[in-house]
Amino acid sequence: MASTSLLIKAALLATVTVTSGCGFQLRGAAPVSAALQPLSVQCVSNVPAQLCNAVTDQLALGGVTLADPAQASYRLRLTRFEQSRRASAITLQGAAAEYDLRQRVWVDLQSSSGLPLIAETELNASESYRYDEDQVLAKRREQQDIETALYQRLAQQVIFRLTPMTDARIKAIEARAQAQPPLETDEPQ
Q1: pLDDT bucket at 23, cuts 50 / 70 / 90
Q2: To which CATH superfamily is domain 28-178 assigned?
Q3: Which residues of 148-167 are buried (b: 16+ CB within 10 A; e: fewer)?
Q4: CA 51-57-62 angle, 5° bins
Q5: How far apart are CA 39 and CA 35, in angstroms?
Q6: CA 1 to chain centre
Q7: Which among 29, 43, 60, 180 is least surrounded, fewest beta carbons within 10 Å?
């Protein structure tokens, strides 16, 4: 009995050692490069506070230094948000039996000088849920829970978009922007 317990402990210790040594990480917020620090997060008025908070919470959890826009080297902007709900299944009586809840947010990343590092990008999340007319209050609560889960998914997508922004990549974008000739205008000089 004692040898079985000792064997289990040894196997567990070996598993932990191997997984930590190979770089295994639990699923969660992806690491954001230190090159993007300090970072400000700006949400326009129609972006739900819960979504904005989910993004800032995940950034803070990942060790990103957050700052006011005036002090930040980079600005992450959530520029637009849309949510829609549509019936995806109908009962024989013509009532909605299932709804599809969709959320979309548009984000971009700029340097403090206004140079776009990530052009405005649309991110999507959706979830379906059953609807029962006899349990309206419970279904409303379920919809709120799904909305919260979708905010978290969108926040994770935002973080994943920031992950490849290393110092080398930022410098390459800045060099490319400086190398481009100014746009010509059609106006005579």
Answers
A1: very low
A2: Lipoprotein like domain (3.30.160.150)
A3: eebbbbbbbbbbebbeebee
A4: 130
A5: 10
A6: 48
A7: 180
